[in-house]
Specification:
The protein is mainly α and 259 residues long. The protein has a domain of 144 residues: Tetracycline Repressor, domain 2 (Orthogonal Bundle). It is 69% helix and 6% strand. Strands 1-2-3 form a three-stranded antiparallel sheet. Helix 5 packs parallel to helix 8. The chain is elongated. The N and C termini lie far apart (89 Å). The N terminus is likely disordered.
Amino acid sequence: MTDRLIILDSTVLRTEVYGTVRLVTARSISPTARSGVRVSERAGTAIAVQFQEARTVTKHRTIARAATELFIAKGYAETSVDDIADAAGVSKQTVYSHFESKENLFLVVTAAATDSIHEELATWFDPALGESSDLERDLLAFSRRFASLVLRPEVLALRRLVMTETVRFPEIGQAWYARGPTRAIDQLAANFQRLTERGLIAADEPRLAAENFNWLLLSGPMNRMLFGVVEKFTEHQIDQVARSAVRVFLAAYRPRPAK
C-alpha cells in the first residue's frame, strides 16, 4: 500500500502508513515527492495550521476535563496546577499557556460545566405543560424528569463545589443561580401562568407557585444528598418524591369550587 502524503509545510511532511503516523524531512523523500511539496506549499501550510489547531483544542479540553474532576474531588484550595498538569499529561507551563492562572482555569471550567448541565435542563422543560389535558399526569411526568436530572450525583457534586467556593468567587455562584434556578423557575412560572389562564390551577403569583413547587419536589432529597446522608436516589424513591410534591401542590393550587 502506498503511503498517503500529508504536507505540513515545505520541508516537513507527515505520512500515514496503515494508520501509523511518522514524520519525514524533504531530504529523505524522492524528487517527485519534493516536487509535490513545492507545488502544494500553500495547501500544506493550511493543513499544518489546521493540524496544530486541532492539537491545541484537544489539549485544551484534556486540561479542562482533568481540572474539573480534580476541583470537584478536592476543591479549589487543595488542587494545584501540578496536580492538573499530571492528570492531563501535560507540563505545568502548558496549563498556564492555555488558561493563564489556576483562578482563571477554575472560572472557565465551572462556567462550562454549569452551562452544560443547565442547557440539558432547559431541554427538559416541556412548554406543552401549560396546555396539558391531564395536569396531574403531565406534572408528575415532568417532576420525575426534573428531579432525576437535578439529583444526579455529578450535578450535586458541582453544586456543592459552587456553594463552597462562592465566598472566594461570587461570580460563579451568581452564574449558577442565573443559569440554573432562575431559568428553571422562569420556565415553570410561564407554564403555571398558562394553566391559571385556562382555569386548571389558581396561581395569582405564578413565580411564587413555581418556587413552592420546586422546593416541594427537591428540598428534601437535595439536602440529604448534599449533606452525605444518602449517595443517590433510586427511580422508585424519585417517583415517591414526585408523587408527593404533585399531590401537595395540586391540593394547594387547584381552583376552589364557588360557594
